[in-house]
Amino acid sequence: MNDAPAVNPHDPNFISRCNAPLRGALEADYETLARQLLRRGLKIEPVTRAVAEFQVAIPSWGVGTGGTRFARFPGPGEPRDVFDKLEDCAVIHALSGATPTVSLHLPWDQAEPRALRERARELGLKFAAVNSNTFQDQRGQALSYKFGSLTHTDPAVREQAVAHNIGCIRIGEELGSKALTLWIADGANFPGQQHLAGAFERYLESAARIYAALPEDWQLLIEHKMYEPAFYATVIQDWGSSLMVAQSLGTRALCLVDLGHHAPHVNIEMIVARLIHAGRLGGFHFNDSKYGDDDLDAGSIDPYRLFLIFNELVDAAWRRVSALQPAHMLDQSHNVTDPIESLISSAIELQRAYAQALLVDRAQLADCQQRNDVLMAAQALKHAFTTDVTPILARARLEGGAAIDPIGVYRASTYRTECAKLRPVSAGTRSGIV
Ligand code: LRH
Ligand code: MN
């Protein structure tokens, strides 16, 4: 940004100036926790190192204020375009140290790939999976997706949707991405509206053509969703449908789990365990929800569920499950908070769940499970979950040149105020997430 704001939150000197008065207390808390863990036979350093290496991608569509079908209340300094979004993503990474990649959504983030790549490089960012969009009709689009895209009964509409996805792959290649996330809204609102088997077969045929266009080092991430915008049947409605697709397409087709895409009370950590068993867990869209696809901040409603998901990932690593490298991404809609603050704190809540999962005494847990000592088995998980790992998370940030108190630094900076001056208020309270 050629007219840099007065106090730039990603200025390392500013960050270390803010860290200085906090270092002493952090040191003391860290030593206390280290002693506590040592009494449990656990070394703190490997956990801190693992947390420092943990990365999660930021959804470009998450840095602008989100909305619902009722309204959207834009905040000051809304990003005007993908370049403003990259600026905001750079602030999130500078302060959290955990978000070096951005997941773009096309055509929402359409821009000249070389300029995008160059700007990202300047900001120290890279691109994660790209997301296609055949759930909206774009201006000038020939054929409508009202009745579906990859599964539409009209082969010309399916052709248009396949071409769009292949176009996204080509742009992603220029950006250095290595995956396409494929979520489609295709489905029905009424019984009888859609032939359930026929729609799935049309999906498989269309997806096979997208898969065939993948560069050999790319992955196709299939994202299932129970409902919305279809309210009776969604073609890729659950993990079973997603797994069937992945297994029919090929080894580089994997399943992406968006935490908000399940019915309330569904055991998502069990789904994660099954997809790991099948060797098809490709990634996550982390968020939280109480009812539907609420896209709330990760760990804000049910942090124990988030912990149990990371517990499955750490357990698989402990069992040396091969080639398990799920792509971690956030997918949230920030309707009433500053998106930058929500994304910083959400990235940290993922690190928290990961660090806690690393503190599970897996040998003790396995022994309790073997002897059906139910209570002690449950206690083994709760003991880790109830450990306050905040000093580990802050230490990992400090060692990575990020902020001990990232929200404090962000608020002490004048970033949002400067953005408000530079970025005119976007007119009107449009609904929808962008
Ligand atoms: C669908 C979804 C999908 C994105 C969209 C923005 O609900 O989770 O991942 O394309 O949100
Ligand atoms: Mn998602």
Describe this entry's structure for a reader.
By secondary structure, this protein is α/β, with parallel strands linked by helices. 47% of the residues lie in helices and 9% in strands. It is built from 15 helices and eleven strands. The chain has helices at residues 12-39, 44-53, 82-96, 113-122, 155-175, 196-212, 239-249, 268-277, 303-318, 339-358, 362-370, 374-385, 390-399, 406-412, 415-422; strands at 58-59, 101-103, 126-127, 130-131, 179-182, 187-188, 219-223, 233-234, 253-258, 281-286, 327-330. Strands 4-5-7-9-10-11 form a six-stranded parallel beta sheet. It has a three-stranded parallel beta sheet with strand order 1-2-3, with helices on one face. Strands 6-8 form a two-stranded antiparallel sheet. β2 (101-103), α4 and β3 (126-127) form a beta-alpha-beta unit. α8 packs parallel to α9. It starts with 11 loop residues before the first helix and ends in a 12-residue tail after the last helix. 46% of the residues are buried.
Shape label: globular
Output the number of helix runs.
Answer: 15
Beta strands, count: 11
Mean pLDDT: 95
Give the helix/strand class: alpha/beta
Mind describing the biggest β-sheet?
6 strands, parallel
Secondary structure: helix percent: 40-55%
Work out the strand percent: 5-15%
Biggest sheet strand order reads: 4-5-7-9-10-11
Order of helices and strands: HHEHEHEEHEEHEEHEHEHEHHHHHH
- Low-pLDDT runs of 5+ residues are none
Cα end-to-end separation: 22 Å
